[in-house]
Write a structure and sequence with these properties.
By secondary structure, this protein is α+β, with helices and mostly antiparallel strands. The protein is built from 10 helices and 12 strands. It starts with a strand and ends in a 24-residue tail after the last helix.
């Protein structure tokens, strides 16, 4: 076996993980993130905080290694994409979710507990090497992979889900791959969820606004300015999730049904900011 390498982005920093060893290659562009403060209990972001968070993921879920946890009962994020799609699978609003897992690449997942484990702490995965144990574990749990090469291709994953006979398909798309969202929207039906949008330009934000059902604000100025203005509903304030369609609203409201903490719903001009946003917005 050669070295197993993963390249990802976290808080705007580029990170390389080789055989479990973490190397943060650049400083985080996001200096403060309320969601990350809540999850990982640290303040200003640095290369050290990025490494600490990834080390926690490895210890808690075995991420980036052969002992990866592949089933979880609860997700860590109130309004995360995995949590929203897992609730939608339980309610029958979706029958499959196309998402990304390190060591496996794009995966079509049908079981909520598998989706929660895969998505729990998934950050902006750019490239990943195959990990046979993760691939075998996912296949044993009814998942469909694109192949053994761990390719990340959400458009192809959506096609694969369709070929398998699924009709109500949720697909996560990284903000930088906005063109994939447009291609899916133009060629068929899907619930398209845009994640990892930090740093995208206004042109990509415009494509997301026109193509997606849900768009996460992350630390993106363009998403708030372009997508937020066109949204019909917003869930969350620090890291807002914008619903662009009736289907998007349905997915958010379905998440609200299963959400244990109290919520308030009221009319507002969007985007609604609450003073506790990531800094800086980029």
């Amino acid at each position: 076996m050669g070295m197993v390498e993963h390249i990802l982005e976290m808080a705007g920093a580029t990170v390389k993980i080789v055989d479990g060893s973490i190397e943060v290659l650049s400083d985080p562009l996001v200096k403060r993130c309320p969601l990350r403060e809540d999850l990982y209990r640290h303040g200003e972001e640095s290369r050290e905080t990025v490494e600490m968070a990834l080390r926690e993921h490895m210890e808690a879920l075995g991420m980036y290694g052969a002992a990866r946890v592949l089933e979880l009962r609860d997700g860590p994020v109130a309004f995360g994409a995995a949590e929203i799609m897992a609730d939608a699978l339980k309610a029958g609003l979706l029958d499959a979710a196309v998402t990304v897992c390190e060591g496996a690449g794009t995966a079509v997942i049908t079981r909520p507990e598998v989706l929660l484990a895969v998505g729990a702490h998934m950050t902006g995965l750019l490239r990943t090497d195959p990990i046979p144990e993760i691939q075998d574990g996912l296949i044993a749990r009814g998942c469909i992979l694109l192949g053994q090469e761990a390719a990340i291709d959400q458009l192809e994953g959506w096609r694969k889900a369709q070929e398998a006979g699924f009709r109500r398909i949720g697909v996560t798309i990284s903000g930088s791959r906005a063109d994939d969202a447009r291609a899916i929207r133009e060629s068929g039906d899907a619930a398209i969820l845009a994640v990892h949008t930090t740093g995208i330009d206004e042109e990509k934000a415009q494509i997301l606004a026109e193509s997606c059902d849900l768009v996460w604000g992350c630390a993106s100025r363009a998403v708030r300015d372009v997508v937020g203005l066109r949204a019909s509903m917003q869930m969350g304030i620090a890291i807002p999730v914008y619903a662009m369609t009736v289907q998007g609203k349905r997915l958010l409201l379905n998440r609200a049904i299963g959400f244990r903490d109290p919520l308030v719903v009221h009319r507002a001009r969007l985007p609604l900011a609450g003073g506790r946003e990531p800094e800086p917005l980029i």
